[in-house]
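dumping these here so i dont lose them again. two proteins, back to back, each one seq then C-alpha cells. dont judge the mess
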Amino acid sequence: MIGGGGAATAAALAAHEAGSRVLLAVKGRFGVPGGRGAGATSNPIADFWTIRTVGPKGGLFNTPDAVHADMLQTGLGMADPVLCRVFVDEIGDTLRRLDDMGLRFRSKMLATLSANSAAGGTNGIVATQKALIHDADIPVLEQANVVDLIVSGGRCVGALGVDDLGEPFVIEAGAVVLATGGVGQLFQWSFNPPGNTGDGYAMALRAGAELFNMEFMQQGLATTWPTQAIVMLYEVDEPYRLVNASGRSFVESYLPSGVELRAVTRSKSHHWPVSCRDESIHLDRAIKAEALAGRATANDAVLLDLSAVDRGFEPELFVKFMLSKGIDVKRDLVHVQVHHHTSNGGVRVDADGETRVAGLFATGETIGWQGADRLGGTMLGGSQVFGRRAGAKAARASAARPAVTLGAAAADPLIDRIRCLREASGRVRPSELRLGLQRTLWETLLVEKDVESLARARSFLAEDRDRLEADVAITEPGDLVLALEQRNLHDVAEAIVEAASARTESRGSHYRSDYPRRDDANWMTNLFASHVNGELSLRREWVAREHGWTDRPGDVRIKPWG
C-alpha cells in the first residue's frame, strides 16, 4: 500500500483481514497531520468534515436510488454510475464500521465530524486506523518516497523508491495499491499537505494505466493568511462585503450584463466548490481576477466581511474553528482566495479498484469516479468504501498471482535514472522549480481557462521539463526527492492541460471562458489519458453510455450539495 491517508489505511486493514502480508509505504512520518505522508484526510484545514449518508431502501429520505441520482446529477453526466452505485450501497456499512472504531458523528442525516483536537485538529480517521494498524502489527515503512512502479510481463510486480537520504530501494509485491492522494501541490494555493504531488497518477500513467476526468478539479474559497482554512458560505444569501486591498468593492465589475450580485451570492450559498453550473462562478472569477490584476493583499487575498452574516449550516463550528486560527469573523476581515481542493478525476479502475494493469490497484483521491462536480462527503466516504474494496481484492490477486520474481531487467533502468539524477549539478534547485510551477498553473488552470492560458501552461511545462532535465542542481538528498516529485507533477499537469484544452465547453468545475456554455451534443463523453510509446494520448469514451444521463429539472435535489 503506497500512501498514508484514510484510503491507504483502510486498504491496509482490509488486506490484512483477508490474510495478506501487508507493507504500508509512507512518505515522511505516518499519521502526522499536515506533514508529508499524512494524506489529505488528516490535513487540518476545516471546521468540519462530512461523509455523505444514505438511508434505507424504501425509506422516505436519502434512499440509495435518490443519492445515486444526486451523484450523477452533480457530476453532470461525467460520473461513473457503477462506482457511484457501489458507494451508495456500501457507505452505510462503512459508517457503522467507523462508529465501531470509536468515531462519533454529530448527526445521522449528515455524518459530520468536527475538528478533533486530540487528533491534531483533524477528523480523526487516520489516527484511529493508525492505531488499528499498530495493533495488527502491520509494518509501516516511513520516509519511503515511492517514485515508480515496476512492471514485468504486463504485471505490476513491485515499486521503486528513494528514502530521505536519497538511497534507492525496491519492494517486490504480489499486488500494489496506490493511495497517494491528489495533486494539490501543483498549485500555489491548495489545502493539500506537502506530499500530495500526483505520484499515483504519474506512476500509473507510466505503468500503462489510464487516467480520466482530469480536467475536473474541485476548487473553493479559503483563507490565505494567517493560516489556511476553508471558508464555506452555506445558506448565506446576504450580499456580504468583498473588497480588494484598497477597500473597494469589485465583484459587480466582473458580472456579465443582466446578472445581479444577489443572484450570484444566492447561488454561492448552495455550494462551496467553484462551478459554472450557476451564476456563482462569477464570484470566484472576480476573486481570482482581482489578485491577478494586482489589487489583492500581499498574500493574494481579497477581504471578506462576514460581521453581519452567519453561515446557515453549523455556524458555531465555523466561528469556533476560525477563532482557533486567530480569526474573529465578527470583527476581522477574512483574507480569502480560491484554492485547489481535490481532483474529481484520476486513475481508471473497476468497482474493486483494479486498473487495466494486472496487479495494480488504486483508491482514494487517486482514482477517478466522480464527475464535473461532486457531492460533499463522497470523497471522504469513498476513500473508506473503495479503500477496503481495493485492499481485499489486492489480497486475493496477490495470493493467486503466478510465480513472478522481480528481475534486474525490470528495476535496473529505473534505478539508473535515479543515480544519474542524483549527480545533476545544474544551476537551479528543485524547490525553486516548484514555486514557479505552482504559481503558473494556479494562474492558468484554476477557476477559468481559455486557449491562451492553456497555451501558456503548455509552454511553461515544456520549458520546466527542460530545466529539470538539463539544469537542476541536486545538492542534498531532499533535492533528489523534490526533483522526482517535479517529474510526477509535470506528467499530471500535462494530462490536465491537454484534457482541458480538448474539452471545448464549460461543465461544472471546468470553465472555459472562450467556450462558456455546456455542449451536451458534442461533449457528453469522458476523456481518457494514457501513455503510448512514452507520449500522452487522449481518447473519448462515455462511461455512462449504458446507464444514460438526463439533466434533472431543478438540478441537485438537496442544497447545499457540496
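---- next one ----
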Amino acid sequence: MSALVQVRNLRVSFRLDRQNTFDAVKGISFDIPENQTVALVGESGSGKSVTSLAMLGLLPPENSIVDPAGEIVYEGRNLATLPRPELRRLRGAAISMIFQEPMTSLNPVFSVGWQLEEVLRLHMGLSGRAARKRAIELMHEVGIPEPERRIDAYPSQLSGGQQQRVMIAMAVACEPKLLIADEPTTALDVTIQKQILDLIAELQRRRRMSVLFITHDLAVVGEIADYVVVMRNGEIREQGPAKAIFEAPKDTYTQALLRCRPQLDRRPARLPVIDDYMDGAGPKHMEERVRGVRAGDPIVLEVKHLGKSFYSREGLFGKREFKAVKDVSFRLPKGKTLGLVGESGSGKTTVGLTLMRLHEATSGEAYFEGRDLLSMPASEFMHYKRRIQIIFQNPYASLNPRFTVGQILVEPMQIHSIGAHSQERTDMAFELLARVGLPEVSFYKYPHEFSGGQRQRIAIARCLTMKPDILICDESVSALDVSVQAQVLNLLQDLQDEFGMSYIFISHDLAVVKYIADQVMVMNEGEIVEIANSDDIYRDPKMPYTQRLLASIPKGWHGAS
C-alpha cells in the first residue's frame, strides 16, 4: 500500500534560553498510507501535537527548530523545507486540521457561515451565493440540524459538539487528501464523542482521504484506527496495525497505556499506573473492590425536589425561563460515591454548583445534619462551606496564577480560622502536599510550573485543607492522561477510605464512573432518568436513554469479538 505521507527522522526542539534547548521530537519515522487512518497515541508531552504542527509548518518560528536532516514527504515534496507560500497553499486544501478546542479555533465575532465561506473563498474561489450554498451543504454533511438557519449563528450559540462539527466541515471543505485530527473528542460527552468518531470514519471512507488521529485515549483509537503509532517522550515506542497493537502489544509502555484505563468488566482495588509496568514489577492490588449502597447506610446529605431556573430577557419587559434542574431528589450515604452522568446540558454541573450555593436554588431543600443548606442565611452557610468542597474541571482556571501553591493552600485556612498560627498552617500545607504526592518544593512554586495532573492534585489538596465531609468532583479527571487519571482516582479512593468522605462525582466518562461510583444517577434535560447501584445500572439499564449512553462507550479494538 502506497504512503501518502512519509515522515523520516523528524527532530524538533525548542529554545529555552540562549544556551539551552528542549528536544520535543527525537528522530521519529512513520508512514500515513493512502485511504487509511493512522492514530498517533501517547500522554501529554509525548510529542504528538508537535509532530502534527511540524507537518503543517505551524510551529512558532521564533523558538522552534526543525532539523533539516529530517523529512516530511508529501507527493514527492519535503514539507519541512517547502517555501512558506507553497505550504500556505497546501494547508486547508490538500492537508487540513481539526484542533482540540473549537471555541479557541472559531472566531467568536463572525458567524460560522462566514468562517466556512472564507475557506471556500480562499482555496476554492467560490463567492456569494455559491459559497453560501456550499457552506450549507457542508453543514448538512457533518450532521448539523437545520443548517439553513444555523449558518448565521455565532460559535457561542452552538453546543460543543456542533462547534466541533463546524470545525470538521471547515477541514473537509476543500476535499483534502490528509485530515489531521488533534484530540477532537477529548472534552465531549460519550454520545457526542461517538457521533464525531462515526462522522470522521464515514467522511474518511466516502472521500477516500487519509486521517492522522491524535489522542491519549487508546479506547477511542480502537474505534477508528487502521494503524497505530505509540509515542513517549518524543520517541516512537511501538507502531503497527491496530489489531496487532491491541491484541498483542510488544512494548511495555503500550501494555501500560492499555491497562491503566478503568475497565467495564472489572474493578481493581487500585488502578495500575504507568510506573507499575515500566519498573518491571507489574500491577499490584489485583483484588476486586466491592461497590454499592445498602438500605442501612447512614445518609450525610438528602436532597429533595431541587430546582434551578435561569432567566433571560425577552422583549422590553418580558423574561424567558430556562429550567436547568427539575425536581431532583437523591440521598448521599456517608463514605460513598454518587456518580452523576448525562450529556452536556443535562444539569449535572448545575446540581453541584447549586448545592454549593454558587447558584441560588429556585426550589427544593438539601439537608445536611438536619439543616437545610439552601434556605439558611449566608452567614450561617459560611460554617458549612468548609465541610462541602468542590473540585472544578479546569484546575488552572480555578487556581490563582499570582499565588504560590503555599498561598493557595494557606489562604482557606486563614479564612476559616484553621490552625493557631501561620507556622501551624504552613506545616499543615506541607502535610497535604505529601498526601497528594507532591514534593515539598511545590509549596514555593506557581500553578503554571505544574502539569495538568499536578494542578489537579493541588486543587484536591486545597479542598482537603477544610477536611470536608462532602467533596463534589466536577469533571475533575476528564482531560487528564490515562496514567495521571489513574493516579488521581487512586488518590480520591485512598482519601475516602481514610476519612470516610462522600463524593458527588460528575463526569461524562462512563468507564471512570463505573470504577469510582457506588451509585449512579443519570440525568437528561434537568431531570433524573434513572438511579441505581453502579453494577446494576451498567449490567441492566432500565431506561432507553441510559441504554443509549452505555452503548456509546468506546469498547477498544473494533475488530475484537
